[in-house]
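User: Predict the structure for this protein chain, please.
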Amino acid sequence: LQLVESGGGLVQPGGSLRLSCATSGSTLEEYATGWHRQAPGKEREAVACISSSGRSTNYVDSVKGRFTISRDNAKNTVYLQMNSLKSEDTAVYYCNAFVVPNNYWGQGTQVTVSS
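Assistant: Here is the predicted structure, written as structure tokens:
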């Protein structure tokens, strides 16, 4: 399974971005998927995840109410809608897809929140 993230960029505080993760090489519906981020000097942290069916989601507390993860299995794509962005959301965002024992990662997309 290959994953390619897109949609990152520079945005002002309070703005919005939508990240996309396009997958290929296997059927996405077999995998749970998630978004993670890594800020400079910090460890990578899980931001949001969604079950293979899309019926179950989870978020880290710091993004609850602001970020929404979704997926379109027909398009083999996972999304992360990010609203009310803050400077502390600045990081490289990575998409992953996992089903035991496999865990696949994309190359990441930079999100910078700055005025």
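Residues 71 and 78 are 4 Å apart (CA to CA).
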